[in-house]
Amino acid sequence: xxxxxxxxxxxxxxxxxxELARIREKHDLxxxxxxxxxxxxxxxxxxxxxxxxIIREAEKNGKLKPGDLLFDLTSGNTGIGFxxxxxxxxxxxxxxxxxxxSEDKINILRQFGSEIELIENEELFQPDAIxxxxxxxxxxxxxxxxTGQRSNDANPRVHFETTGPEIWRDTDGNIxxxxxxxxxxxxxxxxxxxxxxxxxEIKVVVAEPTPESVPSPDNPDAPTIEGVHKVTEVExxxxxxxxxxxxxxxxxxxxxxxxxxxALAVARxxxxxxxxxxxxxVAVAIELSRRAENRGKTIAVVFPxxxxxxxxxxxxxx
Length: 318
Known about the structure:
Blueprint: E1 17-19, H1 21-27, E2 32-37, H2 47-60, E3 69-73, H3 77-89, E4 92-98, H4 103-111, E5 115-119, H5 129-140, E6 145-146, H6 154-170, E7 177-181, H7 186-198, E8 203-209, E9 250-254, H8 256-270, H9 276-289, E10 298-303
Parallel strand pairs: 2-10, 3-4, 3-6, 4-5, 7-8, 7-10, 8-9
Antiparallel strand pairs: 1-2
Helix pairs in contact: 2-3, 2-6, 6-7, 8-9
């Protein structure tokens, strides 16, 4: 029997887990690497889960009604997820983005009918910038629903309820390490917490950018691993509330060039056109696989989105 889905939201989740066998063979790796292909969510990223989790809870609690406006500060993918779910549920959207975000993401948001406000990159270098910007945009939209991806518990919860269980199910519980990146931290925090609840021996490893891959007042135009944030050697107050550092066992730094080149290798060796955050996660998985203590282990990495949103970034590498 076939099945007809009722709407967009029924397509969120249940993404496949695929072995990166050619990369393992090429690099003569001692561990098995599995990729969770999150760009197969209907709006193209892992953030579809976050968006639907937050909107679903707001609907359940009576905080949203048809025609309402949703808004947030985003690096693109969460905004796209919110814009798509909102369109399917009858809401309007408005997003505030750093003015260095890829034009590809901005154009996608506009296709969904979202209103866009760009924030000067330099504004984010000011002390306590994130909190001040969020306070300002909330004041600018007093009658709208602030989705709060960085602080809303529904973000990690949806990954605890879906992403983690899917990985556990599809590996038959044979997973040793989960590797991901931190935008809001919802994925690694929620999925990681679930996996550790099943087996406390499972390790959660975060790929973060190296210092030179993070914009600063001295280097405002530093090439970044877009949407991936540094979680070590930063002010505790700048970390998203949705990031649970107690779930994380190790943080490994990756350069932007390394992330981009690894993403390119994934496309050319495995056929998956992925973004730079996926490249960063695979780069870390390769490093972990080379360690003697990880011989024979299974590493799962999250591919948050597609490389189609970053094509211009790869031009210089080809």
